[in-house]
Amino acid sequence: MVTTREAVRQGFLQQALSKAQRAKPYIATAIRLSEFLADKDQIPPWETLGDTEIQDAFIAASGFSDKARSQLDPQVVISSVMKVLQTIQTQSPQSWRDEMVYRYLLTRGDTLGGIMRNLIGTDGNRLLTDSIVTALERQGKVASIVVSPASKIVSLSWGSRRIIYDKTPRVIGKNVDVILLDTSLVLPAKEKHLENPTCYIACGEIKGGIDPAGSDEHWKTANSAFERIRSVFASQERMPNLFFAGAAIEQSVAEEIFHQLETAKLSYVANLTSPEQVHDLAQWLTDL
Question: Does 173 share its domain with 250?
């Protein structure tokens, strides 16, 4: 169950390679911004930019993230951006061009960090989905996969079974990484299987971060989710199977997980760095 040092090394290497690839567009824009500013004596007026890429670079250089930008009126963003950049020029009259480029890269570095964190989560879902599809193919069954416009896997269905990823059912009140439902039950009009406790077969938490330093925190987050689910279903006829799949599982965390397996608080566990364990988890889910 414990993640090997080699698996940690490989995980960090894959993340670094992925990050380097995804950083290329930002570096290209930084070079273009530097070339654009090279012959400028002062910050050019916004209305003279006329280039979406340069405008976006100006906004990032002023410290506005995409999230902050989406919450503000465009005119407010523009006026604020120009104030910030003019202040930078005033405070650094000789090096303001370089500072704009560096500040752009700092903001986009934070953006890239967010993208990588999201990818780690979705990669765990995709790994499990691929394994489930393979397990079903061995059984001669075909799975139907729903993907969001952002290429995020939303759900996976086969027969009377449906897996839903990253959902917050009203019946639980908090987000659950994986929910396996029995959709064969006939429900009253407009009632959803997701909100009916008797439809729940299994709930799982997937933590794809490979950093050993995050192992304890990942498990604490997952364990809190499990405790919440147990509390909600304590008065119900059916208690769903609970499973955990993590990439960074240190010795102390493995001991806690194993204790919960021994006491039947958990039904299944898999280390995401072990293909065999992920395949076994997928097979177990398709057999439920």
Answer: yes
Q: What is the pTM of this model?
A: 0.84
Give a yes or no: residue 11 inside a domain. no
Among 189, 180, 138, CA closest to 157: 180
* Per-residue pLDDT of the chain in tens (288 residues, 90 and over written 9): 999 999 999 999 988 999 999 999 999 999 999 999 999 999 999 999 989 999 999 999 999 988 888 888 999 999 999 999 999 999 999 999 999 999 999 999 999 998 888 777 678 899 999 999 999 999 999 999 999 998 889 999 999 999 999 999 999 999 999 999 999 988 887 789 999 999 999 999 999 999 999 999 999 999 999 999 999 999 887 899 999 999 999 999 999 999 999 999 999 999 999 999 999 999 999 999
Query: How many domains is the chain built from?
Result: 2
- The SS3 call for residue 235 is coil
CATH code for the domain in which residue 62 is found: 1.10.238.90
Q: Identify each DSSP E strand in 42-199 by its residue range.
A: 144-147, 153-158, 161-167, 176-182
For the chain, how far is it from start to end, CA to CA, in angstroms?
22
Owning domain of residue 98? 23-114
Q: Which of 71, 96, 114 is the last residue of a domain?
A: 114
Strand-pairing partners, residue 142, are none
Task: Give strand pairing partners of 245.
Answer: 206, 270
Q: How many other CB atoms are found less than 10 A from the CB of residue 132?
A: 24
Residues 90 and 170 in one domain: no
Residues in the chain: 288
Please tell me what DSSP assigns to residue 242: E
170 and 226 fall within a common domain: yes
Q: Is residue 8 assigned to a domain?
A: no
Tell me, yes or no, whether 4 lies in a domain: no
